[in-house]
Each structure stands twice: as C-alpha cells, then as structure tokens.
Amino acid sequence: MSNISIKPINELLQYNFFIPSYQRGYRWTEKQVTDLLNDIWDFIETDPTKEEWYCLQPIVIKQLDNKKNVIDGQQRLTTIFLVLKYLEKFIESDVKTFQLEYETRNTTKSNSKDFLNKIEQKTEKEALDNIDYYHIYKAFETVKKWFKNKANIYSSVSSKFITPFLEKTKVIWYNSNEEDAVEIFTRINSGKIPLTSAELIKALFLNSSNFKTKDGKNDEEQNAIADKIRLKQLEIANEWDYIETTLHNEEFWWFINKDENSKETRIEFIFELLVGLPKVKNKKNKDFKDFEEYYKETDDTYYTFRKYAEKFKIKSENEINNNWKEVKRCFQTLQDWFNNRELYHKIGFLITIGHDIKQLIEKSQLQSKTEFLAFIEEEIINTFSNIQLENIQYNNKIIRPLLLLHNIQTMLNNTKENSRFPFNRYKNEKWDIEHIHAKASEAKVKEDIEDQRDWLSENFEKDENVHNNEDLNKRINNLINKQSIKKDDNFQELIEYVLGEEDDSLRNLCLLDRGTNRSYKNDSFKKKRKKIIEQEKKGTFIPICSKNVFMKYYSDELKQLGQWSEIDRSAYSANIIEVLKEYLPKQND
Fold this sequence. Notes:
Largest sheet: 6 strands, mixed
Number of domains: 4
Radius of gyration: 33 Å
Helix content: 40-55%
Strand content: 5-15%
Distance between the termini: 70 Å
C-alpha cells in the first residue's frame, strides 16, 4: 500500500534524495523555472490565510537505506533545491537545504552532489563539463535573475518569499512501498497509471492509519484491529472499483456530462462535484464554466486532491467513513436518475443544455422525489417561458433545445417501449439545424445540361397546388425527357420554382448530424428523404422526430412523399405543440 501525505518544503530539508540512473537528466528550461517562481509569487501576493497553501505536483519516492529514492518528480525537486540554495544566504537560522545526488552524473572532476552543493561558485565553463550540469547551472542563473528582477520592483523580496515558500508551498508526497522502483517509474511515465487526483485521493481513503482508533493491549486485540482495517480497506476498494466500472458505461457517462469528458479515472468527476469549482475568476474576469477550463488556465490539476487532503487532516475513522458515504450518496443519486426512465430523459435534457448538475444533486438530496420531479419540470418550463412558436425563426437560439426536447419527450411518451434517448450518441456528434425543405437561395446553379437534368430528376415532384405554371413545367419536362439539347440559361428560375418559397420557421426545421446534413444541404425534400433512409440503414443516428419528418409520420395524407407540403408543415408544428404542451406557454390560435 502506498502512502500519501502533504509535505511543506521545510519538511524536505531533513532528507537525502537520490536520483537513479534510469531517469533522464535535468532539463527544465528558463520558462519552466520562471513560471514556477511566478506562480508561487502570485500565491504569496494574495496574502494567503493560515489554511491556504500552494500545491506542487507529486513527488514519488521509495525508501532506499538512508536515502529517498526519487521515482518521479525529480525535475521539480531539483528546481526546489536550486531555489533553496539561492535563499540560504537570506535565512538567519542554520536552515540548510536537503541533499540531492544524481547516480550517473559523476565525472572525474566532480560529482553531482558536490556540483549541486557548490552551485553558487560554479562557472558556465565548469558546467560545460556535463550536459546535465549545464542545464542545472542555467536554471540556477534563471533563479538569480528572477529574484534580481523582482528586487527592482519590491523591497526585501527574498525575505518576503522565504517563509511562504518553506511553510505554505507543499508537495504531494507519494511514498511507494512497491519493491521494483524501475517498474514503478516505467508505469508512471508510460501513462498507464497516471497520478491523477482520484488515485491520490484513493490512497488517502485506503491509508491504514486512518482506521486506527486505538492500539490493542495484546496480540489478540492487535490482530482484531488489523483485521478490521483490512476489511474496511477492502470494502472501500471494492466499492471504488464498482463506481469506476459503472462510470465507464458510455450511456451513463454521457448522460451526466454536458460535453466530452476524457478523464482517465472517472470517479474524479464525483470528487469534483463534491468539492465544487474554486471561487475564483478566469482571465476574462468571469466564473470558470467547468473544471476542464479551470485546469487548463491555472494548471492546478490537483485542486480536488488538495481539498480532500485538507478534509483528512482529522484522521479519525468517522471522518473517513463520512467522506466515503458522501461519495457513495452522490454516485447513488446519479445512478438513480439514470435508472429512472422519466428522470433520465428530463434531467438528461437539462444537463445537455447546460444546467448545473451539482445544483440538481443538492436539490434532489433536500427534496422528496415528488418535489424534485416538480422542480425539474419547472426548470424545463422556465427554459421556454414567453416564446411563441409561430414567431421563432432559423437563427433563434431557443430552436436547438426546443427540437432536442421534442425528440426526448417523444421517446418518453412512448410508454409501450423501454427505448431511451441516446445522449451518448447525440453528444458524440455535431448537430445542425436543418431546413426540411431546402432554400432556393442556397442551391447551386448547375453548369451544364447533364447536371441540370440530374438535379431536376432527383428533386422535382410535381405538386398541382404549387407547380401550376405551364411554361416552367414544360421547360422542366423538356430537360428531364431529353427533349432539350442545350442547358437552360435561367436555371435558377427553375430551382426557385421547384423548391418554392423559403421558410425559416420552426415547422421547416429539424435536427440532423452535421455529416448527414452537409452532404445534401441544398437538396430538395425528395432527395433528402432518400438519403435519410440510406443513412439509417448504415446505422447513422437519426433523431426520432427528424426521421418522422422525412417518413411523413406526422401527415394524415401520404399523397406526395417527395414534397414537404403546407399540410405536412402544419401537422409537424401541431405535433411539437402537442408533445411539449406541458412545458410551453399558451400559444396564439
């Protein structure tokens, strides 16, 4: 079992660290060193409270005789060493930095331990003796340059830096008890077992010291305590694995996430929900929208772990059990939603359009099931308050959620089947708002007679109520029947005649995946219908209402399958109103 703890820099001073030969040499650049110092300084400038501290990424060690064998984190550790070496002369006490030695950096002139301890006296010429020494020397010069530049702006910058650096800058200390250090290093650095916040939190939960409420007075009591600890660890480990496995069900995972979430350890999502986003602003002085944005902008990838490390300062069995119960309760809430067909569809809709899932969880845990369902429905109603469907046009932002809910509620209303809206397939695709009947203004004018003939053959289906211009009908028939021997010079007129008036209203719009839509964007209803049938046969996900549109499901009379007529549009609009009536305000007659 590996042990996790948080150690301030001043706790590292007592150790002798050893960097084994299987690791690459020190390679941090001036930018990396400067970024680290800037981050720590920015933290210091916030005037942190007693409880606040700056978190450095993990250092993985294994005890080797009287030395700490550094398995991972040597770049950070070497940089910390260089900062401490620079600050030594400003520290009045006898505080000295820790000892650091590289296994394979010894030369005939000096060894790594000697070079590092006397880094202030070294010259660039001496550093050129060894490529690793050179990078270390340049990093130390960067440290000196940084403090000098800051001293030009702030007085006593070094003394202001020392105490927060020693006491409030902390590393995640991962003490591995596994035998083979090379194997541990290989696993960590191959990415197979990354040190994510979740894995570090797991080590906190499974730390045996958390369950030692009292020592036994004899061997029998000691054995009983040990058995109790093992059983509790096994219980948490099994429950952890069950939660992680369940979250790898793609239908479940995409149901609880608004967008793609590529976490390797998915239980971390639960921990993020429980600790919540930090109350800080992004570079645009706005709240962070999610953890992905926060991690990307701040590089504070271990925020969640830090919050749990703070929780576990009180190492009592009750504290551990209560925190684990909180994790299980959150997971169980999500699982209950997923397994309840009505909640699955309604909550799935709210999450998809951007509602805060943390808020939904908090509400569900404070309300009865009846009250919570009423709250969910009220949230959906609020989404569509004060809208009149007849006034909604193509560019209105409400169209996408409206069409999405029409599809979701249509599936939910079919109580004879257990089918569910596939949020995983929906969120895996890019979606367009598609004109059911194409716009003539976007149709491309054909260049030669064969193109014109093909387009008319595929797109024209005569509607006696619309296509009643004998001259235009004759021109079309002459092209289709090959009676014309040259192209029509005013073909755009024929396109407009075939496609009719443009319609940007809701009754002429549906959802289609971007790949399908853009393959026939300017085609007529007739051609689109044919392609929709072909795409569904290939397994392409076509939302139920979009499929119903092209199959003429909403129309009572199926006279012309190749036309999206006025009757069809009215029937489609009426179905939207009927299906969504419990969420929409009263519509004008």
